[in-house]
Amino acid sequence: MRYYGEEALGLVETVGMVPAIHAADQMLKAANVELISYENIGSTLVTVMIKGDVAAVRAAVDAGAAAAAKIGKLTAHNVMPRPIKPVGDIVSVHDIDVY
Amino acid sequence: MHMANFVALGLIETFGLVFALEAADAMCKAADVELIGYENVASGYISILVSGDVGACQAAVEAGVRVVEEMGTEVYSSVVIPSPHPDLKKITDRFRSSLDGFLGLVGVHLSTKAVSAIWSIVASNLSFSIPKAVTFL
Fold it and tell me: Which residue has the higher pLDDT, B116 or A29?
């Protein structure tokens, strides 16, 4: 889903893919949010990004971060309620809907 | 092999290809699951993704973890997702394409011979030589 920065952005970053997948699953189930991207750039860190309204993104990131921390190493999680548009462009480089 | 219910997901992540392949082999032999993905995050950790019904994924992940621990290493992370969110498919479908390139030669159920064949292919493609001791598969 192309993200333009118009909605809140949630990010969860882990070491390795397994905690990231589990976090993504929990985030999507926790609240009404949409998956923007899954980023594995070969740096050992995997980042999952979601968007939605602020409250939903907050709830989802909390759930996702907790889930990831339980089964692996969580390195970072964040909610950006209203990022600037260039952030949206950066995030969309790894847009999950673009092959 | 193509079961009606590929709903649940099982994942194992461990350090190094040797252990990951052994885990993948054990997982597929232990239960009726399909190997649908492989991911290399370039940290040394390799992840293996299987799909099947919940009980099968559970049994497969347990078998995979057990086999790696028997080899003397700890699994970094493992999880069974009984009912994945539909959007998760967008992520897991990407692993399928990387898997096709990596394991396109062999069938879903890896035999020990297949694993050692894969390992020798991988070893021959690496730029440094693998010590003989490591190729015990």
Answer: A29
User: A34 contacts in B (CB within 8 Å)?
Assistant: 87
Q: Are B77 and A97 a contacting pair at CB < 8 A?
A: no
Q: Do A18 and B11 touch (CB under 8 A)?
A: yes
* Residue numbers in A near B42 (CB within 8 A): 42-44
The answer to whether residue B81 neighbours chain A at the CB level (below 8 Å) is: yes
- The structural domains of chain A, ordered by start, are 8-80 (3.30.70.1710)
- DSSP codes joined into one string, chain B: ---S---EEEEEEEESHHHHHHHHHHHHHHSS-EEEEEEE-SSSEEEEEEEE-HHHHHHHHHHHHHHHHHTT---SEEEEESS--TTHHHHHHHHHHHHHHHHTTS-SS--HHHHHHHHHHHHHHSSSPPPGGGG--
Structural domains in chain B, CATH included, are 8-135 (3.30.70.1710)
Indicate whether B132 pLDDT > 80. no
With an 8 Å Cβ cutoff, are B45 and A44 in contact?
yes
- The pLDDT assigned to B133 comes to 43
In this predicted model, what pLDDT tens digit does every residue of B58-98 receive, in sequence order?
A: 999 999 999 999 988 889 999 999 999 999 988 888 877 65
% chain B with pLDDT above 70: 66
